[in-house]
Amino acid sequence: GAGVSQSPSNKVTEKGKDVELRCDPISGHTALYWYRQRLGQGLEFLIYFQGNSAPDKSGLPSDRFSAERTGESVSTLTIQRTQQEDSAVYLCASSWGVLAYEQYFGPGTRLTVT
Amino acid sequence: AQSVTQLDSQVPVFEEAPVELRCNYSSSVSVYLFWYVQYPNQGLQLLLKYLSGSTLVKGINGFEAEFNKSQTSFHLRKPSVHISDTAEYFCAVSGSGGYNKLIFGAGTRLAVHP
């Protein structure tokens, strides 16, 4: 079956512009996670959704970052007024539920802020 | 707070040689431990996981890892590597309570040479 998909795969934007990143989880997966991977570093947790609610937003770096999810489907991560330090690969993962221990990752969106 | 340290950023090895990728964690609660692999231009794939029970865990592609609670380690091993094992390997930890938020190490780049 289809895995987690993310779009766009690459995004180059100018400093100060807003960007929107999209994640389509595996059908039926109720939990969805966003992570950020900076060059040469591990993944940083950003936010997780159970259904369309976000019980933990503790990893969002600043109020320029926001995310929403429609039901148990698509999620969008929005970064307003992008800064160069936002350049990273943004990865989305989904799982059957919050207590399901295998997270399935998408290929990521590479964001470059110039 | 939980954290993960991967002791080697890069590990070069010749084909058919054994390899060990080291991972240490810190946590004040019981943990679940994971190893993920990221092939070039691909998303993360789960190699293996420790939830409970036997401390020696076998995963895909001939990899195995041993959970050592006293040394707070979860080292990944393979007795004979192939060129196709060249990838980035990430160790991750999550708490045993609540949802499965993963804390990742910085990654180890395994480079297998002919």
Structure description:
- The complex is a heterodimer of chains A (114) and B (114).
- By secondary structure, chain A is mostly beta strands.
- Chain A is built from no helices and 11 strands.
- Chain A has strands at residues 5-7, 10-13, 19-24, 31-37, 43-50, 53-56, 65-69, 75-79, 88-95, 104-105, 109-113.
- In chain A, strands 2, 4, 5, 6, 9, 10 and 11 form a 7-stranded mixed β-sheet that branches. A 4-stranded antiparallel β-sheet of chain A has the order 1-3-8-7, with no helix packed on it.
- In chain A, a hairpin with a 5-residue loop joins strand 4 (31-37) and strand 5 (43-50).
- The termini of chain A are far apart.
- The mean pLDDT of chain B is 91.
- In chain B, 0% of the residues lie in helices and 54% in strands.
- By secondary structure, chain B is mainly beta.
- Chain B is built from no helices and 12 strands.
- Chain B has strands at 3-6, 10-14, 19-21, 23-26, 31-38, 44-50, 56-58, 64-68, 73-78, 87-95, 103-104, 108-113.
- In chain B, a hairpin with a 5-residue loop joins strand 5 (31-38) and strand 6 (44-50).
- Classes of the chains: A mainly beta (114), B mainly beta (114).
- The A-B interface holds A 3-4, 31, 33, 35, 40-45, 48, 50, 55-56, 91, 93, 95, 98-103, 105-108 and B 4, 6, 9, 32, 34, 36, 41-46, 49, 51, 90, 92, 94, 98-107.
